[in-house]
Records
---
Amino acid sequence: MEFATFAARAEELAAEPGDIGTTLAVADLLRATDGDDLATVTRFLLGRVFPAHDTRTLDIGPALCRESIARAAGPNVTAADVEDRLASAGEIGAVAAGFDFGGQRGLAAFGEGRDVLTVAELDGALRELAAASGDGSESRKLDALFGLFNRCDPAEATFLARLVLGEMRIGVGEGTVRDAVAEAFLAVSAGGDGDEEEGDGDEEEGDGDEEEQPDGDDTDPALRADDEAVATIERALQVTNDYGRVAALARDEGLTGLRAEGLEVGRPVQAMLAQAGTATDAVESFGEVAVETKFDGARVQIHYVPEGDGDEADGGALGPELYSRNMDDVTDALPEIAERVADRADVPVILDGEVVAVDDGGDPLPFQEVLRRFRRKHDVDRMRDEVSLRLHAFDCLHADGADFLDEPLRARHDRLVDVLPGAAAELETASDVEAIEAAEAAALDAGHEGVMLKDPDAAYTPGDRGREWLKRKPDVETLDAVVVGAEWGEGRRADLFGTFLLGVRAGADGVSAEADSRRAETGDDEFATIGKVATGLTDEELADLTERLEPHVVSEDGTELAIRPAVVLEVGYEEIQTSPTYSSGYALRFPRFVGVREDKSVADADSLERVARLAGDAA
Ligand code: AMP
């Protein structure tokens, strides 16, 4: 494919307003792309030359890009001129297009003698340029990029500039490419029998246009690849991290080929992620909960094939390689972790874990200490003496030629304990909140960050931030809230207040004492309610609060009492959520009494603004 064709299609994509239209247009482009160009074009659409798992980068910064554009623009143009134009155009592609490089050389853009740039040639040139290293590599990159710009018409220049800076600005994201690949190569064919197992790419070719016709289906002209096709592609993307490869596989081998795609030692996958959650959430969702320490360090994915082992299944020996959460290669910065893996593992593995800095006694140090080691390129040996590291492996994705992504955590954990003796404890499980809280307290006592609560039956889903893994950290900050109501207790606490309605200051200027009493009389709402607290109080505390609050009761309705703001409570919580239940628009999840803020008047209580901030909303 000529790069000019790609650029023209990219311009059309940028002008396409709808999501479905974009997906169909990308599908069209992919169908129209032959041979090896398909993988390249798929990556280019996402602004990539290399797949995400590949640690190579072009390493072309904006300055180098501007400089090469200036050079291609002719002797009278400087990098500063390019910068000026960038300031008004706001975007490098438009700047590159504006110079009309072909015109500079007196060539008609599509005229005779034009040295046509193909997608394949450009890809090769950029890969070569990425390999430049050492002295003079900067100027070699500049020369190479200048040479490429020199051959570009305005549309090509636009997309070359954007490609080297990794941002295409054509409204095509990863989800679009995924859906488009499904649409292009795995859609049930027109009038077809739904036998998508065939996956025979050839049959799809050449009849792309007919595919656009809805086949008697009266649903919108939309996407016809089914959910299974999309899920299969998603899965192949998770294990390969390469949109180009997956597009080619979908075309050439269909669903069968995509399903056969497995992990490869040495090719990192995205890490599985966690959502915030509580012990109660975990017990309710999983029943039995795997409780692991949440280590406060840096994520590492370990790939290793020992000498003389697994050569067939895993493609030859591979010294331990360590990848960060973003799949950067951090092996050289962490030699002792690599050594430890090589010492202990006897079979090829892909493991997931956390590297933590420890003091001389082996106790964990704050996260910042790990950072001093993590991406270090120089003085690694000196820093190795200064900051000791420990590996806590917690998952096993692959061992001895077999992938375990679809195995339950329990099984993966058993494999982990087998393959890395001594580096991981047996999986601990608990089925009640108290046991989890005890484990959390022990983890915190030992200086860790909290606990991870995992579904022991869940698969490992790379890149997914699902509810299968919950992270549970202690409350970061408490809230000082005003008691604005109460409910009588029950049973032996029937003559005491048992539940307290909490409010935060809602007025922008805080609340004056006069406003307090006026509010009580008039019902004027100076405080916005945010939740009720009923846990964490002893009988004595309830008796004390009842006594303090009784004089401030303004009205009583059944078991519910309205209380004039007078007492400030410090409350903990798991999370602040938006909620229509309370007048603040927020609700505390699992609020818990910490104490009475004797030192605070209601005017010093927390404001709605702070709540919004704690909830992560813009204040
Ligand atoms: P956060 O960074 O707060 O989103 O928490 C998730 C991170 O906790 C993961 O990406 C890991 O780096 C880290 N982590 C620490 N211990 C564990 C564990 N036992 N299981 C999974 N992740 C863990």
Note: The first strand starts at residue 273 and ends at 276.
---
Amino acid sequence: MLRFLTAGESHGRGLVVIVEGLPAGLPITVAQIADELARRRLGFGRGPRMRFEADEVTLLAGVRHGRTLGSPVAVEIGNSEWERGKWNAEMDPAPGRTEAPLTKPRPGHADLAGMQKYGFDDARNVLERASARETAARVAAGALAKALLAELGVSILSHVVRIGDAAVPDDMAGPEPGALERIDASEVRCVHPEAEAAMVDAIKAAARDGDSLGGTVEVVAHGVPVGLGSHVHWDRKLDGLLAQAFMSIQAVKAVELGAGVALAAQRGSVAHDAIGWDEADGRYVRATTRAGGLEGGISTGGPLVARVSMKPLATLNRPVLGTVDTATKEATVSFRERTDVTAVPALGVVAETMCALVVASEALRKFGGDSVGELRRNAAGFARQVAEQAQATTDAVDDVAFNWDPDEAFRA
Ligand code: EPS
């Protein structure tokens, strides 16, 4: 199991993440973490902050001479503006008060519900933590999870399939393993050139209007071993764990696994992934990924495929959303803040992160091990067991426990 905790406010001194459960011996460098953080800042449509925010990374604990020690890994990410003194007074931890409380909560943000829940009269006390800045800390943790998964031959990528009303064709094939560089080279992280151009146009149009756009990313994990997650209990199902993790990302409103929603409209005879036997490789195969690589909450060994959708950001450059000033109760429009037109390209990187953290955690639960070598040995041993089981032919069907005979069942 892998656990992680983040702390930090958007305009505070910085963010911290502690990751517990990583085995010893995993190669980790600051550059690896910084590269992932830089990917998260990519994307046409992001606001001014992403241009100057440098994501200053410090490995505080848990790594020595480039390898994990098996102890908790702590990473600090400094906020550039703190260094420049811009927010030091406003976000000072020392006793004091603000001269400019935010009292015009944005509909769609955590502002008002958070003020009510915590008894605040300043929305900043809520928004500083609700901000998607927190995802930088998650992405640092995700870089560690990805490094662990690489040891098991698992790679995770994402690409943008929709921004506003601009989308890739429904039947577009998902990108192959190793396509990440090509995806990141696109300014909206979209691999379909026409859709990419339409997305850029949509962002420009929304920017002109001071508006914001939501969208959808697809996350694909290649090389996930069969057998992660379990059908035996609700909180062990890998599909449920992934859905929770994706839904926890700021502004996400929908998660779809495999063909998801479309399956609801289809007949059972065409909605599933038929199982075949590959004689040459001696393994079971599926030509389709309608189930998203998950059956009964267990990974099937095929690619994991998920789509994650976010709503348009609630902070607008031209505030038009109706709200109430909580100090005067007068009708007004929500406060204006520096913001992004869209963060959908960054959502892909954050969704990769959450997928990596969940899959790495489940891989550690199944294979265990205190060192990377032990983990790899255990995973290889299980892969061998699965291959041997697949090869073994059943001598006498009657001897197989729990064998379900459809003829028998329908006669009853
Ligand atoms: C955000 C508002 C903007 C975004 C921010 C999320 O921040 P600021 O108000 O400082 O310009 O840039 O995203 C990040 C800081 C980030 O690192 O992703 C919000 O209101 O959630």
Note: The CA atoms of residues 25 and 231 lie 32 Å apart.
---
Amino acid sequence: MNIILMGCPGAGKGTQSARLQSAYNLQHISTGDLLRAEMASGSALGKQVAEVINGGNLVSDELMISMLETRVKASDKGIIFDGFPRTVAQAQALEIMLQKYNRSITSVIMIDLPEEEVVKRLSSRRLCKKCGRPAATITQPVCACGGELYVRADDAPESVKHRLEVYRKDTLPVKNYYQHSGKYVEINGHQTPDQVFEDICSVLEKVK
Ligand code: AP5
Ligand code: MG
């Protein structure tokens, strides 16, 4: 299975990818995580990337596609694409890339979430420096794994507002790209994480 998980910032792509990864033995490739790892390395590229991400903009298609190809090439499992493609150009490049590695997309799952909920979720999100997962409660001092918690710079209200604008302008057209492919399904993201997961699994059980 090769799955694309789409959705606006905060829709729950990362949360659901972590669950799907264990349930279906898939590789989770989050382009946001790849970029944050580059930022954490302190490289010159990481510094350029940080400016783009923290301002809530998209990095270039060219950079993103080449970073992704390295991961796809090295993977021997089905893949969950989290946060990619984010532009129609990336969707077209992904199609060509998957053909090259004898893969194809099984399902495109859009997690829908109202914008008011996005702001609420992201203003209280704290992530673990060690395992990368969001903290389950707003009061816990450290992650369940013991790791230190931090706030993403692009979760500042101004960045979130801009990320949503970029999403509407550049990423929603990707929905139109897949909508009539016969693989596209929308899931209600405004439910508990367990309910969202259940809905995604019932889609995947049909195409497994
Ligand atoms: P990326 O890291 O992909 O960020 P994003 O798409 O904005 O989405 P998030 O990671 O913020 O949210 P999520 O949907 O994963 O939600 P989560 O599960 O964490 O990208 C960051 C940046 O990198 C981009 O802005 C861009 O600059 C760059 N970039 C990345 N990919 C790119 C590409 N392809 N091309 C160009 N640039 C790219 O959940 C959010 C919060 O809600 C958490 O606190 C969680 O605990 C909580 N939550 C989750 N589900 C539920 C639920 N059902 N109910 C209640 N709370 C929930
Ligand atoms: Mg994420």
Note: The beta strands are 2-7, 27-30, 79-82, 107-112, 127-128, 149-150, 184-188.
